[in-house]
Amino acid sequence: EDKFVKKQMKTKAILSYLYYQDGEVLIDEISPKEQMGEFINNETKFYSMSMGKSITSYILGHAICGGYIDGVDARINDWPPIENTLYHNQKLIDFLNMSVGDQKYINEFKIGTTGHPLADLTYEYETNTIYSTLNLFFKNTTKSKSIYNYNGFITQLLFNYVKHKTGKDFQKILNKVFQDKVKTKNSVYFNRIKYASVEHGNGHPMVRMTRFDYLRLAKAIMDDYQNDTCVGKYLKEIHKRRIPKKYNKEKNEPLFNRTKSYGGQFH
Description:
Largest sheet: 3 strands, antiparallel
Low-confidence stretches: 114-119
Mean pLDDT: 91
Radius of gyration: 19 Å
Shape: globular
Distance between the termini: 30 Å
Number of helices: 9
């Protein structure tokens, strides 16, 4: 038991705290009953939020190692939804690094998508297909300077591109990651846009997992990185090719745990 952690759990909006070291969980705390414990337990699915970006990258690494995608320098020029947009024929590594030059059209820290009258209607790409968003905002757009521009739409593109490239084997890739490698105890599921087809990009990288399954996933990623597996080499490559953020003071990226560089959907 750790008295400091226990106090934090009772006074802060922390759902779960797990401290793992040398093959065992040394500290295991969940929000107490008087806080949020009434609503959560070890089987509760936690929303990934932006952690879904790193998980998407990890899945993409498995798709590359499975031979479905040539590598991080492959150009995305074989996917119909992105034709006649700034995203067409750009390298995968630039998508991974959030540096595809789309800053004129999308801004994660302003309401809606910029560069179009519909932005005032607070259009949400998260609840719409790739096809819909690209047709509304990105047709006949041109790429700007390649600088870091953090946004969730890029990850949505990557997630659906993996679905496109793996086709009927997409579920096999997910099974290989979560069942065979991570060995999740509980079910894992991703969001999907209702009443939409795979061809239109109906997938969403938001994933829901239990607290211990998130820990199992983190360990699997570190095991790959440290054991130089094919996916481990992919993780090393995206880390090696990370880019500086170079955000000025006006940018509103969260201050907590701020980093100076970004690589392959990892801060």
